[in-house]
Amino acid sequence: MKKHIVCFGDSNTHGYFPVEGGCGRFNENERWTCLLQKRLGEDYLVIEEGLNGRTTCFEDPLEEGLCGLTHMYTCLMTHEPVSLLIIMLGTNDAKERFGSNAACIALGMKRLIQKAQSVKDCWAEEKPNILLITPQNMDERYIDSPFTGSMGRGCAQKTRELAAEYKIVAELTGCAYLDANQIATDGPNTIDYMHLTKKDHYLMAEAISKKILELGI
User: Fold this and answer.
1) Up-side HSE of residue 202: CA atoms within 13 Å toward CB?
2) Mean pLDDT of 102-131
3) 179 and which of 65, 134, 153, 207 could share a cystine (Cβ 3.0–4.6 Å)?
4) What Rg do the C-alpha atoms of the chain give, in angstroms?
């Protein structure tokens, strides 16, 4: 049995990238999840669970099926035995319509992590292993992009405050931790100012693979 690495996230795990007049998806030679698979090799199975718009625990009134908390159990049991769960969420939680702040988003992440840890039957060797990653901050310039209508105002400030909050959550819940802002230094992109560039996907795969090996997974 290979070691199952589940990457649970939103559009930046899915590999979304914006283009003028629409959107696309990075291919299997470009997404950080696929690059991570190549770096780790045949002893690992890296599983992509990135969904555009996903939140930690908020039910979106405009789109169905985006609440991470609701789907965590099913996801983990589908892919058991899980050697490592990587969670990178929070950007969508900053949307104005949820009326939240960084502290509350972090509480949502804490709740999501505790839910994952409670799914006892999914973990390899019966031991929860979770790597929490703070997503890359949104740039203030997102507000002037054509893609910002559904995000609303105030999102950039909220995402800037997540790293400090998430680091505390990681310590409280016993999770490993990385901050994408210390890794994905090429972007954000200059179209919507909220998604990883192709180079940043490469940098993310490089850093995450090193972290996994450090953890002895």
Assistant:
1) 7
2) 97
3) 134
4) 16
**Which residues, in sequence order, are CB contacts of 158 under 8 Å at separation 6+?**
93, 94, 100, 101, 102, 105
- CA torsion angle 44 88 130 200 (round to 10): 50
Distances (CA, A) of 80 to 2, 7, 39, 45, 157: 11, 13, 22, 11, 37
Q: Which of 185, 59, 183, 193 is CA-nearest to residue 131?
A: 183
Tokens of residue 107, six digits = 């509480």
Higher pLDDT, 32 or 126: 32
Question: Would you place residue 22 in the very low, low, confident or very high pLDDT band (cuts 50, 70, 90)?
Answer: low
pTM of the model: 0.97
> How many angstroms separate the CA atoms of 53 and 123, rounded?
26
Note the residue count of the chain: 217
- The candidate with the shortest Cα–Cα distance to 93, out of 166, 177, 146, is 166
Compute the mean pLDDT over every residue in the chain, rounded to the nearest whole number.
96
**Sign for the pseudo-dihedral over CA of 14, 17, 23, 28:** negative
Binning pLDDT at 50, 70 and 90, where does residue 131 land?
A: very high
